[in-house]
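Subject: two folds for Thursday's group meeting

Dear M.,

Sorry for the delay on this. The cluster queue was jammed most of the week, so I only got both jobs back this morning. I'm pasting them in the order they finished. Each block is the input sequence followed by the predicted structure tokens. Could you check whether the formatting survives your parser before we put anything on slides? The first protein is the one we discussed after the seminar.
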Amino acid sequence: DVQLQASGGGLVQPGDSLRLSCAASGFTFQSEAMDWFRRAPGAVSEWVSRISADGGARDYRGDVMGRFTTSRDNARNTLYLEMNDLEPEDTAIYYCALANGRARGQGTQVTVSS
């Protein structure tokens, strides 16, 4: 079965950086485009980024463009989200998902606060 486990979250101050990881198993990772989503307290989930199966194409929501970078290591079946210049508005549970919508994993909490 598909398993997606995000990690790397934490409590940071505005302007800090974090790198999230998502360990994938149960499917052919290198054949699938992958997404990051986030869900802020009291809000609905929102899409954050997408990366193509080979990593050659990436897309981001507008308010993270230029601050967040998604990448992947297909040899390690791992997806990454590098987050720089974090803002309090980035506070959320972040989780990874198959871009085809078939599965999404458990998330990791990111809290940005001074």
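Second protein, same layout:
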Amino acid sequence: QVQLVESGGGLVQPGGSLRLSCAASGFTFSSYFMSWHRQAPGKERELVARIGNTGVYTNYIGSVKGRFTISRDNDKNTVYLEMNSLKPEDTAVYYCFGRNTWGQGTQVTVSS
């Protein structure tokens, strides 16, 4: 059974940092691109960052470039999203996606 489980969300002040993790199981993790998406209240879900199966290829939406870093550990079947210099507009539920499967999401709230 394919499963993605996110963790690491929470409440952080503007300018702060969080590291999200997504643990994968039930498929050959190292063979698949993985991505992080987010959905803010009243908005459509959007792609935030994507990483190739070896970790060499990465891509980001413009609003997070230079602040967020996607990475993966194929030995641990885990993909990460390091988020720095967080802004209130980064507030959203963050979802992990891979092998046509969504995780359950983790809430990130940026507020003073």
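Two things I noticed about the second structure. The mean pLDDT is 97. The first strand starts at residue 3 and ends at 7.

Cheers,
T.
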